[in-house]
Write a structure and sequence with these properties.
Blueprint (H helix, E strand, L loop, with lengths): L1 H24 L38 E11 L4 E11 L6 E7 L26 H8 L9 E7 L7 E4 L2 E10 L4 E11 L3 H4 L4 E4 L5 E5 L5 E2 L2 E2 L3 E2 L15 E10 L3 E4 L2 E2 L2 H4 L2 H10 L7 E4 L1 H7 L7 E11 L4 E4 L3 E9 L2 E9 L6 H20 L7 E6 L4 E4 L2 E4 L11 H16 L16 H18 L13 H4 L19 H20 L2 H14 L7 H10 L6 H9 L7 E11 L4 H9 L11 E4 L16 H8 L3 H5 L7 E8 L8 E7 L4 E6 L10 E8 L3 E6 L14 E2 L7 H10 L1
Parallel strand pairs: 1-13, 20-21, 21-23
Antiparallel strand pairs: 1-2, 2-7, 3-6, 3-10, 4-7, 5-6, 8-9, 9-18, 11-12, 13-17, 14-18, 15-17, 16-19, 19-20, 22-23, 24-25, 24-26, 26-29, 27-28, 27-30, 30-31
Helix pairs in contact: 7-8, 7-9, 8-9, 9-11, 12-13
């Protein structure tokens, strides 16, 4: 008995303790976890260099670096030799004890650490002779810079240290604000066969021994120094791209005399390197806006590639206010060009390609370049440079100021699929578009890949749809669903440094692009978005923006609070999943419902004798046959008839149908609710509720629909505008329709 009493006492004591703890829990505090809280905890504090509006501040500064280079291509040995003179302008307010340069070619050096950072394993139990030889017997490519000297302007040795892909110049005394420093570097390196050795540039070999050279990252280049990162000297591991300063370039490039070349900048010596016929055709191209003009025809290129010149010629280019320099050269190139009118300013759209690129390239490349310049200029700023060049380089897709290297080769018989054509058009649009982001709006690619790839992919999408309204861009919200609904273990927020991101393409390209498309199309509207986006682009032309500058400008120029969107879409891996939990239909009655009685009792309100309209739910044992219309209530008619003619004119038709829809949000992202309502008469209506509808309860909310027509179905996000990862809960009734996404999934299965 004592034991039983003790057990009961212990049980009652535990219940009392639990009740006490539950009672205490209502006093336990918590931090603000609301999806709409401001981003003060994530964005850096504004200052005199970067304002709270997202614009450069009155104390904003950036460095300038000028290069004078003599470059020689040794075609026989596939080497590049270079002498460069560098002038570094310290425009900051800081004294600099040293300078940092990028040595990107060292990623292929014999002592490179890049291969060592990757996990590898045996992926198969056997190899064919070719793959076994390549994997186990081939000597590694002898790449990387060979630095012959680093000197002061007076020729005296200059102290330096190389740390993998970075080189530190040790200054004898700190470089003061406003001062310049001149020095010289002589170097050479073996050019990689990018077909076999990989790389973003190099040469493509052809069976007859010819090569097409697409040369970039080919000279020691200064790192960025600013008030955000200090020196941006993160190592180059091969993926995350480049942070560079603007400057002026004076470059002479010596190649075999039968080569055709294009490069960053303006050609200074046309008469020395072009024939009279080529110069005449080039002048014609400068005045031709409808179709490309051939400067070198296919027949001429075929004839040219048969020989091997033993003498050389030097092409001389100058470029002002660019952040990099690249060039392409070969005796195989066909060359065509046309003019593009950008608000009264002539820009040349240019293409270089071997015969292997035709007929695809002569049909599309230069026209795509022109379209890209026109469309990007509409959405950002007028293209400021004199030309944009597209070079055919199989298995490539890489961008530099005024020039880019793009894949796209038909079959040997000249045939090609629509998929190949669209792929080529897409890559040309994308790489030419990089002239705007980041070649002009000069973000830090090494740290924030999405600021150039994502923004560029978004504008690319609009340009592609202008070129072909049926173009499959791959960058719409529906295109990111498969990635976002994947294993969270392999997902990273967009705001992640690219070197450790698992799925680099969706993370840095597609998801940011889809998000911006969503902002423009669904959340902000084109007018507000376009003005804000153009404001950002123009504020940061030829400057170094950060993510905060973009986020702040988009809000500052649109009067829209988008912190909820940036936080969710860019800083988390949350997903969109919005559905319909239930739909209740209500009817009008003059008899108090149980819900009304309970409501009145809670508020000590007497219902008797009052003239009231009640809403009855069919599920509350109410027979819809007993439903009334608004006109069935005498007191309501009496009230309306007592209104003035002006007041009556403001009234709309009384609704006959009432629905309460409960929307649920299993996904972590808040998004607008897009509801397409279908009526019994066959008509449809679409309502969009702002994302702020979730501000009080992010799990579920109710919306009441009052209509004079019977609703037969409701579908959430019928056009897949919000990247909803689960559309099985998007329709009421559930069997209403098979959504586009379900069709898409079934197509992929089949």
């Amino acid at each position: 008995m004592k034991k039983t009493f003790f057990i009961m006492f212990s049980f009652l004591l535990a219940l009392g303790t639990m009740a006490q703890e539950n009672d205490k829990s209502k006093y336990q505090g918590h931090t603000d976890q609301n999806k709409f809280k401001q981003m003060k905890d994530l964005l850096p504090t504004p200052n005199e260099q970067r304002t709270a509006s997202g614009a450069p501040g009155h104390q904003y500064t950036q460095q300038k670096v000028d290069y004078v280079m003599d470059i020689r291509l040794d075609e026989k040995n596939s080497q590049i030799h270079g002498d460069e003179k560098i002038t570094y302008h310290n425009n900051s307010k800081d004294y600099l004890e040293y300078l940092w340069l990028q040595l990107d070619q060292n990623v292929r050096a014999a002592n490179s650490k890049t291969p060592d950072i990757n996990s590898d394993s045996f992926n198969a139990a056997f190899n064919g002779p070719q793959s076994f030889t390549k994997s186990n017997l081939e000597k590694p490519f002898e790449g990387g810079f060979n630095i012959e000297y680093v000197k002061n302007a007076d020729g005296s040795p200059l102290s330096y240290l190389i740390n993998q892909t970075m080189m530190r110049i040790n200054l004898a005394k700190p470089l003061a604000p406003g001062e310049t420093f001149d020095f010289q570097i002589k170097w050479w390196y073996n050019i990689n066969d990018y077909f076999n050795d990989g790389g973003r540039s190099g040469y493509e070999p052809f069976p007859d021994g010819n090569k097409c050279y697409t040369i970039a990252q080919f000279f020691p280049r200064l790192c960025v120094y600013n008030n955000v990162e200090g020196w941006q000297n993160m190592q180059f591991w091969g993926r995350s791209e480049f942070a560079l300063e603007f400057g002026d370039y004076d470059v002479k490039i010596t190649v075999p005399s039968d080569h055709i070349m294009e490069a960053t900048g303006e050609l200074q010596n046309e008469k020395e390197v072009l024939t009279a016929k080529q110069r005449k055709r080039w002048e014609e191209a400068r005045k031709t806006y409808d179709n490309p003009v051939f400067i070198v025809t296919q027949e001429e290129a075929i004839e040219n590639e048969k020989g091997r010149a033993t003498d050389t010629k030097t092409w001389h280019y100058k470029a002002n206010n660019v952040r990099d320099f690249a060039f392409a050269t070969s005796r195989k190139y066909i060359w065509d060009a046309m003019a593009v009118n950008i608000n009264g300013h002539n820009v040349m759209a240019v293409s270089l390609y071997p015969k292997e690129g035709n007929p695809l390239w002569e049909e599309h490349s230069t026209r795509v370049v022109a379209n890209t310049l026109e469309e990007y200029s509409k959405l950002t700023f007028d293209y400021p440079y004199s030309k944009a060049v597209s070079v055919n380089a199989d298995r490539q897709g890489m961008e530099y100021p005024m020039i880019c290297f793009n894949f796209g080769r038909p079959s040997a018989d000249g045939t090609y699929s629509e998929r190949l054509k669209h792929g080529m058009i897409g890559v040309i649009t994308h790489e030419v578009g990089h002239n705007f982001f980041p070649m002009i709006v000069n973000s830090d690619e090494r740290q924030w890949t999405w600021m150039d790839e994502g923004l560029n992919s978004f504008v690319e999408t609009l340009a592609e749809l202008d070129y072909d309204p049926n173009f499959d861009t791959g960058n719409l919200p529906k295109d990111i669903v498969r990635y976002m609904s994947g294993d969270q273990k392999f997902l990273s927020p967009i705001m992640s440094q690219g070197d450790y991101v698992h799925q680099f393409g969706p993370n840095a390209y597609t998801k940011p692009a889809a998000g911006l498309y969503m902002l423009r199309h669904t959340i902000m509207g084109e007018e507000l978005f376009d003005y804000a986006f153009r404001t950002y682009a123009q504020r940061w032309m030829f400057k170094h923006p950060t993510p905060a500058d973009f986020f702040r400008t988009m809000e500052d120029a649109s009067a829209m609070d988008l912190d909820w969107f940036w936080r969710g879409w860019f800083y988390t891996t949350d997903v969109t999943d919005i559905g319909i939990k239930e739909v209740k239909q209500y009817y009008l009655t003059d008899q108090p419902t149980e819900a009304a009685k309970k409501f009145a009792e809670q508020r000590n309100f007497n219902l008797e004798g009052r003239q009231l309209v009640y809403y009855a739910e069919a599920g509350d044992n109410f027979d819809p046959k007993n439903a009334k219309k608004a006109s069935d209530f005498p007191f309501l008619n009496e009230y309306i008839n007592g209104l003035s003619p002006e007041e009556k004119a403001e009234l709309k038709e009384a609704p006959s149908y009432f629905y309460q829809v409960t929307f649920e949000k299993p996904g972590g992202l808040v998004m607008p609710i897009i509801a397409e309502i279908s009526y019994a008469d066959g008509t449809k209506e679409r309502k969009t509720f702002p994302a702020q509808i979730w501000r009080y309860d992010e799990n579920e909310i109710n919306k009441v629909f009052k209509t004079d027509k019977e609703i037969t179905s409701i579908v959430v996000d019928p056009d897949l505008e919000t990247a909803d990862v689960d559309t099985t809960n998007n329709a009421w009734p559930q069997e209403t329709q098979q959504t586009d996404f379900e069709k898409f999934k079934n197509e992929m299965k089949n």
